Amino acid sequence: MSGLVFILAGAVMYIFPPKKINHFYGYRTPRSMASQERWDFSQKYSSVLLIISGVVLVPLGVIISLLPISRNTDILLSIPLLLLSVLLFFIKTERELKKRFGKN
Predict the structure, then answer these.
(1) Strand ranges, E, within 8-102
(2) What residues contact 16, with CB distance under 8 A and at least 6 apart?
(3) What is the pLDDT of residue 78?
(4) Phi, psi of 47 (to 5 degrees)
(5) Would the pTM of this model clear 0.85, i.e. be above it?
(6) Hey, how many other C-beta atoms are within 10 angstroms of the C-beta on 36?
(7) Which listed residue, 25, 26, 28, 92, has the most CB atoms within 10 A of its CB?
(8) How far is 103 from 48, CA to CA, in rounded Å?
(9) Whole-angstrom distance, CA of residue 95 vs CA of residue 49
(10) What DSSP string runs through 25-94?
(11) Phi, psi (5° rounding) for residue 24?
(12) Helix (H, G, I), strand (E, B), or coil: what is residue 23?
């Protein structure tokens, strides 16, 4: 289910990216909010990564749900996958910002 949420959120952010730097909507980190150019780039880049993460999470979630395991084990497998996906999302976006725009 979280994969579908990622896909939906990524699609909404891609289609309706926040136009101006704000503290409420979009990919908001100090690096992405340092300039309008960084902001615009990070919104598009992170929304694509969010969609890709969702596309990967959906089949993994289906596979886990089909395994003959208890519901608790299902959750114990799903949560680390979700957390890893979010962590990779931030790491990849921050690295790309740093690569394109430098450390500052």
Answers:
(1) none
(2) none
(3) 87
(4) -65, -40
(5) yes
(6) 11
(7) 26
(8) 23
(9) 13
(10) SS---TTTTS-HHHHHHHHHHHHHHHHHHHHHHHHHHHHHHHSS--HHHHHHHHHHHHHHHHHHHHHHHH
(11) -120, -35
(12) coil
